[in-house]
Amino acid sequence: MPQVTLDLSLEEMKTLIFQLPPQELLTLVEAIEARAETLTMMQLAETGFREWHEEGEDLYDAEA
To answer: Are 23 and 31 in contact, with CB atoms under 8 Å apart?
Structure first.
């Protein structure tokens, strides 16, 4: 299936989105919220692994 790329400003996207029927608008909002939550959780999880990249933290690389 061919992909189409649109070059829209934020205001243009808002205008299009606000034309959606109410139920489709709610579905879109739920999808955006889920995506935002996932991205936030991924960013938080990344901070837990930063210590593995610090100098001297090679015990995780040691073979048994």
So the answer is: no
